[in-house]
From TrEMBL:
<dbReference type="InterPro" id="IPR004113">
    <property type="entry name" value="FAD-bd_oxidored_4_C"/>
</dbReference>
<keyword id="KW-0285">Flavoprotein</keyword>
<comment type="similarity">
    <text>Belongs to the FAD-binding oxidoreductase/transferase type 4 family.</text>
</comment>
<dbReference type="InterPro" id="IPR006094">
    <property type="entry name" value="Oxid_FAD_bind_N"/>
</dbReference>
<dbReference type="Pfam" id="PF02913">
    <property type="entry name" value="FAD-oxidase_C"/>
</dbReference>
<dbReference type="GO" id="GO:0071949">
    <property type="term" value="F:FAD binding"/>
</dbReference>
<dbReference type="InterPro" id="IPR016164">
    <property type="entry name" value="FAD-linked_Oxase-like_C"/>
</dbReference>
<dbReference type="InterPro" id="IPR016171">
    <property type="entry name" value="Vanillyl_alc_oxidase_C-sub2"/>
</dbReference>
<dbReference type="InterPro" id="IPR016166">
    <property type="entry name" value="FAD-bd_PCMH"/>
</dbReference>
<dbReference type="InterPro" id="IPR016167">
    <property type="entry name" value="FAD-bd_PCMH_sub1"/>
</dbReference>
<dbReference type="Pfam" id="PF01565">
    <property type="entry name" value="FAD_binding_4"/>
</dbReference>
<feature type="domain" description="FAD-binding PCMH-type">
    <location>
        <begin position="43"/>
        <end position="224"/>
    </location>
</feature>
<keyword id="KW-0274">FAD</keyword>
<dbReference type="GO" id="GO:0022904">
    <property type="term" value="P:respiratory electron transport chain"/>
</dbReference>
<protein>
    <submittedName>
        <fullName>FAD-binding oxidoreductase</fullName>
    </submittedName>
</protein>
<dbReference type="InterPro" id="IPR051264">
    <property type="entry name" value="FAD-oxidored/transferase_4"/>
</dbReference>
<dbReference type="InterPro" id="IPR016169">
    <property type="entry name" value="FAD-bd_PCMH_sub2"/>
</dbReference>
C-alpha cells in the first residue's frame, strides 16, 4: 500500500475542477457533507472536493490526472453501501467521484431484452424503463429509490430476487469502464454468448470500485410476469422454515421468486416504528416467511399456485398460519414491512450487523449457535436475524439491550463480529454475503481467503491501478 499522500494543492484542485466545470466541483462543507457520511452514520470521512462528471470522457480525464498526480479517488453512486466502501477516509486527501450525473438510459431493446444505462441511473428508474417496455429488471433492494446501477454492479448487489434471477453480476451483458489510469474499456456488448478471451467485465463486478469505474452497462431484461401472489406464513423454527422452502421449490420451481424470513421481534419493531404497519398474521408466530410466486399466465394460476405452496407447508405441519395478500396494496404492505427491517432497528438503539451466508442445510444450526453466543457475550441483547432464506443469506443483526448505553454496546462491534464470523466460517459460510468488504471487513478478508487468493487479488490491484489511487484502503 503506497504511503498516504498530502492533501491536493489548490492548483491541483483547480485542474480537477476544470475537467467538470466549476459548478460540478463541490467544496462547500454543507454541500459536500452528504457525500462524506454513510447511511448508517458508521463512517464519516473528509474530502477537499466532490467531483460530479457529466460524461465518460470527463471520468477518464479525472482518473488520468489522479494517476499522474497520485491523488486518491473514491467512486460513489447513491451512497447506500453498508460497508463504508463509498466514503472517503478521515485524512482529507481523497476526492469523491460521484457518478450521479451519468444518468441517461441510452437504449432499451425489448426484442433483445436488453437495456443500456449509465452508471448513475437510480435502480427505481431502471425498473420503470423496463416496465414501460413490458420487461422486467429483477434486482430488488430496500435501497432501490436511492442506489444506482453502477453501485449495484460494483457491489454485486443481491436483494430479494436472487433465488430466481441471481445476483447483479448475473444481470449484465456488457460494461463500459474507465481504468484507474484513464483508459476506457469499451465493452458495451449485448451478446448472450461471447467466449472470445477472458470475460474482463468480471474484474469490475463486485470489486467495489477498486479496479475501475463503471460508467455504463448493458443489462439483461426478463419477461414480465403476468401475475404475482404474495403471502406471509408463520413457522415455529428456522428448521421448519427451511423444510417449507424445500416443499415450495418442489411445488413452484422457477416460479418461486422470493422466500424471506423475519423473526417475530422484528415484526414487533415494525409495528412500533413503521407508521400504518399491521401484523399480517392473526396468530403471532416465532418466525414469519414472506413468500412470492410469479407466473406467466394469469392471476387465477398465481393464486392457485400460492395456495398449493401454503397447503403443502400446512399439511406437513411446518406452517402454522398464513395470509395471502388480498390486494396489490396489501402485497405492497407485506413487502414494505420486509424492506423496512433495517430502518426500524435504528429506533431501538444500537445495532451490530453481520451480512453472512451459509449452506442452506447449516442455517438452523448457525442461527441457534450464533444466538446463544451473542446472548452469552452481551446479556439482554436482542438478536434479530432476518433476510433472504431462499439463497442462504442472513442479516444476523443484534439490537442493544433495552435501556443500555448505545456507545458502550457498539464498542463491542468487533468482539461480536469475531464470535459470529467464527461460527459462520466453521459451518462453511461467507462473512460477506451481499454487502461486500469495503472498509468495514478489509482486515477480515485475509482470515477467510487463502494466501494464494490474497496474492492474486493484490496482483490484480497492482496491475490495474499501479499508482494505487482508486478507492485505496478498501477490500484489499
Ligand atoms: P454506493 O454505496 O455509492 O457504492 C457502493 C460501492 O460501489 C462502493 O465501494 C463504491 O466505491 C462503489 N461504486 C459505486 N458506484 C461505482 C461505479 N460507477 N463504478 C465503480 N465503483 C462504484 N445490498 C444488497 O446487496 N442487498 C440488499 O437487499 C440491500 N438492501 C439494502 C437496504 C437498505 C435500506 C440500504 C441502505 C442498503 C441496502 N443494500 C443492499 C446495500 C446497498 O444499497 C447496495 O450495496 C447498493 O448496490 C449500493 O449502490 P449505491 O449506488 O448506493 O453504491
Amino acid at each position: 500500500m503506497p504511503s498516504r499522500p498530502a492533501p491536493p494543492s489548490s492548483d491541483l484542485l483547480a485542474r480537477f475542477a476544470a475537467i467538470v466545470g466549476g459548478r460540478h466541483a463541490l467544496t462547500a462543507p454543507d454541500v459536500t457533507r452528504p457525500y462524506l457520511i454513510e447511511w448508517r452514520d458508521r463512517y464519516e470521512g473528509a474530502s477537499p472536493m466532490v467531483l460530479r462528471p457529466g460524461s465518460t470522457a470527463e471520468v477518464a480525464a479525472i482518473l488520468k490526472l489522479a494517476s499522474e498526480t497520485g491523488t486518491p479517488i473514491v467512486p460513489q453512486g447513491g451512497n447506500t453501501g453498508l460497508v463504508g466502501g463509498q466514503v472517503p477516509d478521515e485524512s482529507g486527501t481523497e476526492i469523491v467521484l460521484s457518478l450521479g450525473r451519468l444518468d441517461r438510459i441510452r437504449a432499451v431493446d425489448p426484442a433483445a431484452s436488453t437495456m443500456t444505462a449509465e452508471a448513475g441511473v437510480i435502480l427505481d428508474r431502471i425498473h420503470d424503463a423496463a416496465d414501460a417496455a413490458d420487461r422486467l429488471f429483477p434486482l430488488t433492494l430496500g435501497s432501490q429509490g436511492s442506489c444506482t446501477i453502477g453501485g449495484n454492479l460494483s457491489s454485486n448487489a443481491g436483494g430479494t430476487a436472487v433465488l430466481a434471477y441471481g445476483n447483479a453480476r448475473d444481470m449484465v451483458l456488457g460494461l463500459e469502464v474507465v481504468l484507474p489510469t484513464g483508459e476506457i474499456v469499451e465493452g458495451l456488448r449485448a451478446l448472450r454468448k461471447d467466449n472470445a478471451g477472458y470475460d474482463l467485465k468480471q474484474l469490475f463486478l463486485g470489486t467495489e470500485g477498486t479496479l475501475g469505474v463503471i460508467t455504463a452497462a448493458v443489462l439483461k431484461l426478463w419477461a414480465k410476469p403476468k401475475a404475482q401472489e404474495v403471502a406471509v406464513a408463520g413457522v415455529a423454527t428456522p428448521a421448519d422454515a427451511l423444510a417449507a422452502l424445500g416443499l415450495a421449490k418442489t411445488r413452484a420451481g422457477a416460479q418461486l421468486t422470493a422466500f424471506e424470513i423475519m423473526p417475530r421481534q422484528l415484526v414487533e419493531f415494525c409495528l412500533r416504528h413503521q407508521p400504518g404497519s399491521r401484523d399480517p398474521l392473526s396468530t403471532p408466530a416465532p418466525w414469519y416467511l414472506l413468500v412470492e410466486v410469479s407466473v406467466g399466465t394469469g392471476p387465477a394460476e398465481a393464486h392457485a399456485l400460492m395456495e398449493a405452496v401454503l397447503e403443502d407447508g400446512l399439511a406437513a405441519g411446518l406452517i402454522e398460519d398464513a395470509t395471502i395478500a388480498q390486494s396489490v396494496a396489501q402485497a405492497k404492505d407485506f413487502w414494505r414491512m420486509r424492506h423496512g427491517m433495517s430502518e426500524v432497528q435504528k429506533h431501538e438503539g444500537g445495532s451490530i450487523k453481520h451480512d453472512v451466508s451459509l449452506p442452506l442445510s447449516a442455517l438452523p444450526e448457525f442461527l441457534t449457535r450464533a444466538t446463544e453466543a451473542v446472548e452469552r457475550l452481551v446479556p439482554g441483547c436482542r438478536p434479530v436475524p432476518f433476510g433472504h432464506l431462499g439463497d442462504g443469506n442472513i442479516h444476523f443483526n443484534v439490537s442493544q439491550p433495552v435501556g443500555a448505553d448505545k456507545a458502550a454496546f457498539l464498542a463491542g462491534w468487533e468482539a461480536m463480529n469475531a464470535v459470529v464470523h467464527g461460527i459462520v466460517t466453521e459451518l462453511g459460510g461467507s462473512i460477506a454475503a451481499e454487502h461486500g468488504v469495503g472498509r468495514m471487513k478489509r482486515e477480515m478478508l485475509a482470515g477467510v481467503r487463502s494466501p494464494v487468493e490474497m496474492m492474486l487479488m493484490r496482483r490484480l490491484k497492482a496491475t490495474l491501478d499501479p499508482a494505487g489511487i482508486l478507492n485505496p484502503g478498501k477490500v484489499v
